[in-house]
Inverse folding.
């Protein structure tokens, strides 16, 4: 595939690593590719980072035809840059595209544009402990008409943002509120797709939680409000009586790549991992009788985030004395070790640029 590259004449000053936070700064370039029903995917390009110009009737602005991905490039100790399981993000992007009737991208094409982009922007990968270059591929429907139908025109874009930790707590435990009013997704809906609409619908509950001093909400299933699903920006896992329990992929939660990786690491360490329905009642009982040993979230932005407090129906439950548990710490060490190239990657997960 031909990728046109136009380098910027005005390179930005890179931010101080200690001020990074999440998603506040953007690199010098962005990658793009255009799709139309007549031409398919065409005009792959890497161009200076700039505002997008779209028609006021563009499909994305009215009917939310948008999907995205999130993955990271990490700076190794030897100075090189590597990504973590990038092909899984390409595959999930296509599953999301299929659900939203957006065009899928041949895997090799999306992968080539992504890797070329990271090669061009690699100097933006920070090297301080816990930092990385967050990559945000996204696609939107771009028809210039108000009719509601599957799109005939779309844009695929990749932007990059040097980041530190997602939560202000870093690796310290976060407080999470179990939400029993709003719901995020239902089976048959778009819960398993990474589409902007899922996040827009989540914002109200997220804001209510933040106002009460919680980082995010833990969703219950959209039909019975009985089963644990996932947190706003991460999947969840619980250590109950020595076993790891995590909600099964029922169609309404995001199949996280970190989740999948945690399961593989845990199994390789001899843990029993149960992917199943977990009711909030079972979780509350485990919190009351002390069999809930650890709780944590996992995701690209969130990495491994211990949960130190859960609130349900106005009652606060402290998990593991509000401290990170040993299994959570072990997973954090192994995953981040592989991601930053400090631990041997026996799984074959990293892709070196
Ligand atoms: N669940 C939600 C709702 C998310 O936004 C994310 C983040 O991407 C995840 C789970 C974790 O997915 P992954 O590990 O692929 O980043
Ligand atoms: C990610 O972890 O990549 C996400 O997309 C979470 C997010 C919505 C910030």
């Amino acid at each position: 595939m031909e990728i046109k590259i136009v380098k910027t004449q005005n390179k930005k000053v890179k931010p101080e690593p200690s001020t990074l936070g999440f998603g506040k700064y953007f690199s010098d370039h962005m990658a793009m590719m255009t799709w139309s029903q007549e031409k398919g995917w065409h005009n792959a390009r890497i161009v200076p980072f700039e505002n997008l110009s779209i028609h006021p009737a563009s499909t994305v602005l009215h009917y939310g035809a948008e999907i995205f991905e999130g993955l990271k490039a990490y700076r190794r100790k030897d100075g090189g840059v590597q990504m973590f399981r990038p092909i899984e993000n390409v595959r999930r992007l296509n599953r999301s595209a299929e659900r939203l009737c957006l065009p899928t991208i041949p895997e090799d094409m999306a992968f080539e544009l992504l890797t070329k982009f990271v090669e061009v922007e690699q100097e933006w990968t920070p090297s301080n402990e816990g930092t990385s270059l967050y990559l945000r591929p996204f696609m939107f429907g771009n028809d210039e008409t108000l009719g509601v139908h599957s799109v005939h025109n779309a844009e695929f874009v990749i932007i990059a943002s040097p980041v530190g930790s997602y939560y202000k707590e870093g690796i310290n435990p976060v407080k999470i509120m179990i939400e029993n009013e709003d719901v995020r997704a239902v089976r048959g809906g778009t819960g398993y797709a990474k589409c902007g609409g899922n996040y827009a619908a989540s914002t109200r509950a997220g804001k209510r939680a933040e106002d009460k001093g919680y980082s995010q909400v833990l969703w219950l299933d959209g039909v019975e409000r009985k089963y644990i699903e996932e947190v706003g920006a991460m999947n969840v896992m619980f250590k109950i009586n020595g076993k790891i329990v995590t909600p099964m992929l029922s169609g309404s939660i995001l199949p996280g790549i970190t989740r999948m990786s945690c399961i593989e690491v845990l199994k390789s360490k001899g843990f029993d991992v149960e992917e199943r329905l977990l009711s909030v009642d079972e979780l509350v009982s485990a919190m009351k009788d002390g069999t809930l040993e650890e709780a944590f979230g996992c995701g690209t932005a969130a990495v491994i985030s211990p949960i130190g407090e859960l609130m349900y129906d106005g009652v606060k439950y402290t998990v593991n004395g509000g401290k990170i548990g040993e299994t959570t710490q072990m997973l954090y060490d192994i995953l981040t070790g592989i991601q930053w190239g400090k631990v041997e990657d026996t799984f074959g997960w990293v892709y070196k640029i």
